[in-house]
C-alpha cells in the first residue's frame, strides 16, 4: 500500500526544486520522499489507519505545503540524512540529563523525548527512526519559523528568556489552547510499537525541549502552568551555561585552523552526522555536483564498501574522493590536489581522520 | 513544609549516659566538688572525717578515703596521675595557701605539705593542674606555675606572671586559662603549655559592660581553643524583655582569625557543652539544647560567621534514675566541660552523648543535605549516613534533588581528602593543616551500602545523579560504580543513556567497561561500537583483534594486529578460519597471501608449519585457485 501512494509524489517532487538550475541528486530526492512520508506518518498517522475516501485530501493537505516548504539544495549536508549532535562537556551534559530526570519524576505524565540546543541534539528519548523525523521537524520546520518570530518581535524577548510553550504556536494559556496540542504517532525508546501522543514543545533562549504525553491522559491547565514555572528558570540556567560553553568551544575551534579539506562523517547507529562546513555557515564553498554525486553513490550503495572498506576515486578535474566504512560508520573526504598520487591521498585522509575523529575506531587496513 | 523523618530514629539527638555515676549528696554535711580536668566528682562528708568519695567515668580512678577536717574546702583536685591531691581551703587569716597530700594507689600516704603563693597577700581564685606534676595557682595578683616534687614534699616555682584578675576560666583540653581583668572588661588568655606561662593575644570584647564569669567559657573545639562568650541582648526601655542571646566564639589559639556567632534566639540562663566538635547550648527555661556546627560551610563577613542551630532545638531524652524519670534541666544541674552534667541533689554524674540518628528525625526536606554534611564531620556517623541515603533512594521520586545534594556533600569531602592525600604524597612532608575526616564515604562504600541495595525503576535516575556529582567534583568513576551503572541502566532498558554517558566521557574508559559494553553488543550493536572505540583509545589491540576475528573481519584484524605489533605472532589458523567464513573468496586469498609473505619473512620459506594446523586451508586455497 505504501508503495502505491509514493509514486505520484515521487513524480511531483522534481518539479519543486526545479527553479534552481542545479540537477538534484536522485538519492537526495529519494531521501526527501522518505522523510516526507515519515513526517506524514508522525503527524497524520499511518496510511492503514486512514479511511480510503479521506486519503487523497489528507495527503493533499499535508504533502503539498510540506514539499513546498522544503528547499532542497545540492549540499554536502543534504547527502546524508543525519542528526547534528552538540558536543558538550560532561558536566553540562549531566545538567541536561539531571534536569530531564527531575522533570520526569516530578511530572510523571510527561516524558522528555528530545533536548535540542540551537539546531543540535543533546538528548533523545525516541527510537532511532522517529528521532530523525522529529529532529527534522524541529530543525527544518518549527525552529526556523520560531527564530524568525523571535528576531522580529521585540516584545517577546522577555518570554524568550523565561521560556514558553511553542507548540501549539500560541502557547498554552487557556484550556482552549490544550485542544490545539499536536497529536503525533511515535515510538519512544521504551515502546514496542507506535503510539499516539500529544507533542508539547517548550523553548527558552536557544534550548528547545519536546515532551510527549499519552493521548489518554486528561490534560489539566494547572499542570501546564506548574510545568512552565518548573522548567522556565531551570532551563534558562542550563541554556545560558551551554551557550557559554559553546562560545568557548567556538573560540577554540576558530584557533584550531579548520581542515582545508571537506569531509562528511556519518554514524549509521545513532545517525550522527558531521560535516567540515557547519550547515549554517557560508555555502559559497559549495561542493561540485559531480563530487556530491560520487559521495551519494558510495553512500547509497552500501555493498560497495560493505561493513568495512575504503575507496578512493579521482575525478578528471583533480578531485580525490575517499570513502571509508568501518564499524557502522562512514567517512568521506574531498581533496582537491594536482599531481598527487594515491599514497599521498591515503596518508592525507588518514591524517584528516585522526585529526577530526579523535577517539573513534576505524578498522585499520 | 515537607519534612523528612529517618525511619526508626528517635526524636532526641542528645541523651545522658545510660548509667550515671552515683554519689551520695543528699546530706547537709556533704559537700560536692567537681574537677573538670579529670572529670571527677568529690563528695566530702563532714569535711572529710567521715569520708571523701571520688567518682568519675573511669572506674579505675574512683576511690574513697578519710581525711582530717582542717576547715571548709573551696576546691579539691587530684593531679592528672592521681599521685597528689591538692586542697584549697577557706581559712581566716591564712590566704594564698594550698595543701597537698601524696597518694599511692589512690590511697593517702599521710605525707602532707603545703605551698604559699609568692604574693603573700593575694587571694587564690583557684588552682589547676596543667600537667601531672605541675600546678598553677591563679590569684588576684597573677598566675604562679609550680612544679610539685612529692618526694621532697615541696614545690618549685617555674614561672609567674602578674595580672590583676577578678576571676578565671580554664580549659583542661588545651591548657589555656582566661583571666578577667579590670572587672571583666579585659579578657586575657594565657597558655600553660611547655612548663611555662605564655601570654596570648588579649581578646577584643566589644562590650561596654563588664563580662560576667558565668558568661565566659574556654572551649576546645575543632582542634583549637575558643572563648565562648554569651552576649545577652540589651534591655531597652521600650520593651520589657531583652533581645535574644548570642554566643560569640572568639578564637584564642589555633582557630584562625574568624569568629563565630551562634544565634540562640532565646533569653535566659544557658550552659554549654562540646561533643564531637559540636557546640551544645543548653537553655534552662525552655528545656532545650541547641546544636551548632562551626565547621559548616559559610562565607565569613567581617571575619565573622553567623550560625543557626543545625536542627530545631529540642530537649535531651528524659533520663531515668532509680526507676523514676528525673527532672531535666533542673536548677540542681551543673554542666562541666566538655560534656559532663551533674545533678548535685540526686547525686548523678552523666556524660552527655550524641544520638546521630536523632538529627535526622525531623528535618525540612531541603535541609537533609546539611544534616548529611554535619554527619560527615562526626565520628562513627557512616551508619547513620547510609540509613539516610537508603531512605532517600527508596523514595527517590520525592527526594531526587535532596539526594543529589547529599551526594555533593559526600563527594566534596572525599575530594578534599583526596587533594590532601595527593599533596601529602607529592610534597614528601605532611602539610601543616591536616584535615579531619571522620567519615569518608568512598565510591565502593556507596555501592555496597546504598546503591546495590535497591533495584526499583528510579535507580537509573539515582545512579545518574551520583555520577553527575562525581563528575562535578572531578572524581574518577571507579570500577564498582561503573559496573553498577551498566547493570542498572541495562536492566532498565536505558541503553541509549548508557551510550550517551560513554560518548560524553561521563564514564571513564576502562577495559572492564569496554568488555561489558561489548557483551551487550548482541542486543545493541551501538554498544559494541562504542566498546570498540573505547578499546582503541585504551590501545587494547589484542582484544580488538579477537573481536574483529569473531566478526569475520580478518583483513581488519590483521591490520589491527599490525598496529599492535602483534602481526608476527597472530595465529595463522585463526585468521584463515575467519577468512574462510567471510563471504568473499578474495578476502581469503588476500589473507592467505599475506600470511605466506609473513612466513617467508619470518622463516625464509612461505610454507606453513605442520604445527600451525593449516592443512584444511591450504586445500581450500588450492580449490579456490583451481576454480578461478
TrEMBL record, chain A:
Instruction: Tell me which residues make up the CCZ1/INTU/HPS4 third Longin domain.
Output: 259-351
CC terms in the record's Gene Ontology section = Mon1-Ccz1 complex
Among the Pfam families in the record, one is Intu_longin_2
Segments forming domain CCZ1/INTU second Longin = 114-231
**InterPro entries in the record, alphabetically?**
Ccz1, CCZ1/INTU/HSP4_longin_3, CCZ1/INTU_longin_2
User: GO biological process annotations for this chain's record?
Assistant: vesicle-mediated transport
Q: Would you tell me the protein name for this molecule?
A: Vacuolar fusion protein CCZ1
Automatic annotation (TrEMBL), chain B:
* A GO biological process held by the record: regulation of autophagy
Q: Which Pfam families match?
A: RMC1_C, RMC1_N
Read off the SUPFAM superfamilies from this record: DPP6 N-terminal domain-like (SSF82171)
Q: Origin, by domain of life?
A: Eukaryota
Entry's InterPro entries?
RMC1, RMC1_C, RMC1_N
Q: Which GO terms describe its cellular component?
A: late endosome membrane; lysosomal membrane; Mon1-Ccz1 complex
Quote the protein name from its UniProt record: Uncharacterized protein
* Organism (species): Danaus plexippus plexippus
Amino acid at each position: 500500500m505504501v508503495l502505491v501512494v509514493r509514486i505520484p509524489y515521487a513524480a511531483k517532487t522534481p518539479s519543486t526544486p526545479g527553479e534552481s538550475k542545479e540537477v538534484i541528486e536522485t538519492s537526495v530526492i529519494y531521501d526527501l520522499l522518505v522523510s516526507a512520508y515519515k513526517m506524514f506518518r508522525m503527524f497524520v498517522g499511518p496510511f492503514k489507519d486512514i479511511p480510503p475516501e479521506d486519503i487523497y485530501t489528507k495527503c493533499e493537505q499535508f504533502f503539498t505545503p510540506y514539499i513546498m516548504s522544503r528547499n532542497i539544495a545540492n549540499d554536502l549536508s543534504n547527502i546524508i540524512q543525519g542528526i547534528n549532535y552538540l558536543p558538550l562537556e560532561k558536566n553540562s551534559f549531566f545538567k541536561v540529563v539531571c534536569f530531564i530526570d527531575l522533570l520526569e519524576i516530578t511530572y510523571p505524565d510527561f516524558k522528555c523525548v528530545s533536548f535540542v540546543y540551537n539546531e543540535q541534539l543533546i538528548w533523545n528519548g525516541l527510537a532511532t527512526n522517529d528521532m530523525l523525523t522529529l529532529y527534522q521537524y524541529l530543525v527544518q520546520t518549527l525552529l526556523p519559523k520560531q527564530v524568525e518570530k523571535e528576531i522580529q518581535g521585540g516584545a517577546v524577548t522577555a518570554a524568550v528568556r523565561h521560556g514558553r510553550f511553542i507548540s501549539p504556536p500560541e502557547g498554552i494559556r487557556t484550556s482552549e489552547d490544550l485542544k490545539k496540542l499536536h497529536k503525533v504517532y511515535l515510538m519512544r525508546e521504551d515502546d514496542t510499537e507506535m503510539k499516539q501522543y500529544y507533542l508539547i514543545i517548550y523553548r527558552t533562549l536557544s534550548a528547545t525541549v519536546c515532551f510527549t504525553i499519552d493521548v489518554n491522559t486528561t490534560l489539566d491547565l494547572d499542570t501546564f502552568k506548574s510545568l512552565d514555572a518548573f522548567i522556565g528558570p531551570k532551563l534558562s540556567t542550563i541554556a545560558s551555561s551551554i551557550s557559554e560553553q559553546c562560545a568557548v568551544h567556538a573560540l577554540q575551534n576558530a584557533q584550531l585552523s579548520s581542515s582545508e579539506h571537506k569531509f562528511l562523517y556519518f554514524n549509521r547507529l545513532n545517525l550522527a552526522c558531521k560535516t567540515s562546513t557547519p550547515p549554517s555557515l557560508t555555502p559559497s564553498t559549495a561542493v561540485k555536483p559531480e563530487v556530491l554525486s560520487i559521495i551519494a553513490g558510495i553512500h547509497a550503495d552500501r555493498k560497495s564498501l560493505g561493513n568495512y572498506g575504503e575507496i578512493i576515486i579521482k575525478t578528471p578535474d583533480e578531485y580525490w574522493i575517499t570513502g571509508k566504512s568501518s564499524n557502522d560508520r562512514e567517512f568521506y573526504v574531498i581533496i582537491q590536489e594536482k599531481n598527487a598520487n594515491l599514497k599521498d591521498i591515503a596518508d592525507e585522509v588518514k591524517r584528516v581522520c585522526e585529526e577530526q575523529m579523535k577517539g573513534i575506531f576505524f578498522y585499520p587496513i | 513544609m515537607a519534612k523528612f523523618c529517618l525511619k526508626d530514629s528517635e526524636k532526641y539527638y542528645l541523651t545522658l549516659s545510660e548509667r550515671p555515676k552515683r554519689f551520695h549528696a543528699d546530706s547537709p554535711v556533704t559537700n560536692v566538688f567537681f574537677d573538670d580536668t579529670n572529670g571527677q566528682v568529690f563528695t566530702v562528708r563532714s569535711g572529710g572525717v567521715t569520708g571523701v568519695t571520688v567518682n568519675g567515668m573511669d572506674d579505675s580512678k574512683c576511690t574513697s578515703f578519710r581525711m582530717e577536717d582542717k576547715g571548709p574546702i573551696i576546691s579539691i583536685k587530684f593531679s592528672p596521675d592521681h599521685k597528689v591531691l591538692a586542697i584549697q581551703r577557706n581559712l581566716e587569716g591564712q590566704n594564698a595557701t594550698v595543701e597537698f597530700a601524696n597518694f599511692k594507689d589512690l590511697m593517702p600516704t599521710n605525707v602532707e605539705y603545703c605551698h604559699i603563693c609568692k604574693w603573700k597577700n593575694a587571694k587564690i581564685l583557684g588552682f589547676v593542674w596543667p600537667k601531672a606534676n605541675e600546678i598553677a595557682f591563679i590569684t588576684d595578683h597573677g598566675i604562679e606555675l609550680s612544679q610539685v616534687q612529692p618526694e621532697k614534699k615541696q614545690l618549685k616555682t617555674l614561672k609567674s606572671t602578674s595580672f590583676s584578675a577578678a576571676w578565671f576560666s580554664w580549659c583542661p583540653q588545651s591548657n589555656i586559662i582566661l583571666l578577667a581583668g579590670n572587672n571583666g572588661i579585659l579578657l586575657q588568655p594565657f597558655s600553660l603549655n611547655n612548663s611555662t606561662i605564655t601570654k596570648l593575644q588579649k581578646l577584643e570584647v566589644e562590650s561596654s559592660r563588664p563580662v560576667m564569669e558565668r558568661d565566659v567559657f574556654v572551649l576546645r573545639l575543632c582542634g583549637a581553643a575558643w572563648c565562648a562568650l554569651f552576649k545577652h541582648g540589651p534591655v531597652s526601655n521600650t520593651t520589657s524583655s531583652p533581645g535574644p542571646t548570642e554566643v560569640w566564639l572568639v578564637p584564642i589559639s589555633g582557630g584562625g582569625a574568624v569568629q563565630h556567632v551562634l544565634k540562640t534566639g532565646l533569653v535566659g540562663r544557658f550552659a554549654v557543652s562540646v561533643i564531637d566538635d559540636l557546640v551544645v547550648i543548653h537553655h534552662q527555661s525552655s528545656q532545650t539544647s541547641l546544636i551548632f556546627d562551626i565547621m559548616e560551610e559559610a562565607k565569613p563577613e567581617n571575619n565573622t560567621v553567623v550560625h543557626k542551630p543545625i536542627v530545631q532545638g529540642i530537649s535531651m531524652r528524659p533520663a531515668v534514675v532509680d526507676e523514676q524519670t528525673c527532672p531535666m534541666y533542673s536548677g540542681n544541674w551543673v554542666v562541666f566541660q566538655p560534656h559532663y552534667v551533674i545533678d548535685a541533689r540526686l547525686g548523678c554524674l552523666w556524660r552527655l552523648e550524641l544520638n546521630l540518628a536523632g538529627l535526622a528525625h525531623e528535618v525540612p526536606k531541603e535541609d537533609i543535605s546539611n544534616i548529611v554534611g554535619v554527619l560527615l564531620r562526626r565520628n562513627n556517623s557512616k551508619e547513620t549516613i547510609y540509613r539516610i541515603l537508603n531512605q532517600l533512594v527508596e523514595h527517590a521520586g520525592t527526594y531526587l534533588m535532596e539526594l543529589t545534594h547529599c551526594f555533593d556533600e559526600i563527594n566534596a569531602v572525599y575530594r578534599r581528602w583526596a587533594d590532601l592525600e595527593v599533596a601529602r604524597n607529592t610534597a614528601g612532608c605532611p602539610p601543616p593543616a591536616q584535615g579531619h575526616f571522620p567519615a569518608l564515604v568512598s565510591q565502593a562504600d556507596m555501592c555496597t551500602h546504598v546503591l546495590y541495595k535497591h533495584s526499583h525503576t528510579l535507580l537509573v535516575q539515582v545512579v545518574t545523579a551520583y555520577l553527575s556529582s562525581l563528575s562535578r567534583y572531578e572524581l574518577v568513576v571507579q570500577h564498582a560504580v561503573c559496573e553498577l551503572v551498566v547493570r542498572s541502566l541495562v536492566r532498565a532498558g536505558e541503553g541509549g543513556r548508557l551510550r550517551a554517558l560513554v560518548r560524553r566521557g561521563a564514564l571513564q574508559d576502562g577495559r572492564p567497561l569496554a568488555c561489558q559494553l561489548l557483551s551487550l553488543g548482541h542486543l545493541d550493536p551501538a554498544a559494541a561500537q562504542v566498546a570498540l572505540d573505547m578499546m582503541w583509545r585504551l590501545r587494547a589491540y589484542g582484544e580488538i583483534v579477537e573481536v574483529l576475528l569473531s566478526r569475520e573481519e580478518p583483513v581488519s584484524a590483521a591490520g589491527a594486529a599490525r598496529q599492535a605489533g602483534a602481526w608476527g605472532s597472530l595465529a595463522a589458523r585463526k585468521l584463515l578460519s575467519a577468512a574462510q567464513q567471510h563471504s568473499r573468496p578474495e578476502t581469503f586469498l588476500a589473507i592467505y597471501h599475506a600470511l605466506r609473505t609473513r612466513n617467508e619473512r619470518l622463516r625464509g620459506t612461505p610454507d606453513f608449519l605442520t604445527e600451525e594446523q593449516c592443512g584444511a586451508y591450504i586445500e581450500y586455497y588450492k580449490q579456490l585457485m583451481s576454480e578461478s
